[in-house]
Amino acid sequence: MANTKPDRREMLEMCISRGLLVGGAAMTQTQLLAFWQKTEAGMHQPTKAEVLGPFFRKGAPDNKVLRAPGDAGFPLKVTGRVIDTRGRILEDAKVDLWHADHEGLYDTRGYRYRTKLSPDAKGLYGVETVMPGHYADRPAQHIHYLISAPGHKTLITQVYFATDPFFEGDPVKNWNKRGIASNKELILPVKLFEGPGAPRAEVNFDIVLEKA
After folding, report:
1. Does a structural domain hold residue 64?
2. In 3D, which of 168, 77, 175 has the Cα closest to residue 124?
3. Which of the ends of the chain has fewer CB neighbours closer than 10 A, N or C?
4. Residue 60 included in any domain
């Protein structure tokens, strides 16, 4: 017979039944289990990691507007927050963000479409940029991230766009097409706005770091 390991719930139930886990106040086994389940439900899963890629550059400025007047490409706003697995704001977090231009080219000498953000007191960050272009090595549009915060694991990840033609209109089915994206959770829905002003897109990417 196969030797299967108990999952977290089964392990918890065994600990409670054997007296290995008790509450500070008198609690029944059912109450302890319910308390644990409520705590688990309030936890946030750490953001999935991705590859760093060859185009990272240190020293990017804290710039919230990456799109210069007259830049080619569809205007894009990227927003989100940086928190820990309990939903708490991470003070002193830093968010490196960079991507290719509209033509799929990276600025490897300067800092076009590159920034290192400091989220605000509410953990929020945001940039105005353009939708990245496609290029042969990684034909899905994407934005690179490197996020750090004191006492937490540094996270390297990427985000993709559900509207990208690469996913053929069905990112749920095609999220792992050609192995480009390693986690379907990183393919973000895109909001499109027509006016007033020029059409634009917006995505929201919340980042959850786990303790080191």
Report:
1. no
2. 77
3. N
4. no
Q: Which segments within the chain are labelled E, that is strand?
A: 75-84, 94-98, 114-117, 124-130, 142-148, 155-161, 187-188, 191-193, 200-204, 207-209
pLDDT of residue 75: 96
Is 108 domain-assigned?
yes
Side-chain-side CA neighbours of 44 within 13 Å: the count stands at 18
Residues 146 and 193 in one domain: yes
Both structure tokens of 34: 């319910």
Residues 113 and 174 both lie in one domain: yes
Q: Note the Cα 139 to chain centre separation in Å.
A: 20
The answer as to whether 15 is a domain residue is yes
Backbone angles phi, psi at 84, to 5 degrees: -100, -175
Instruction: Look up the pTM and report it.
Output: 0.80
The CB-side HSE value for 46 (13 A sphere, CA atoms) comes to 15
HSE of 165, CA atoms in CB hemisphere, 13 A: 5
Beta-bridge partner residues of 202: 77, 191
- Residue in the block written with tokens 């600990």: 15
Written as tens digits, the pLDDT of the chain (212 aa) is 555 555 555 555 555 455 544 445 555 666 555 555 554 555 899 999 998 877 999 999 999 999 999 999 999 999 999 999 999 999 899 999 999 999 999 999 999 999 999 999 999 999 999 999 999 999 999 999 999 999 999 999 999 999 999 999 999 999 999 999 999 999 999 999 887 777 899 999 999 999 99
Residues 120 and 182 placed together within one structural domain of the fold: yes
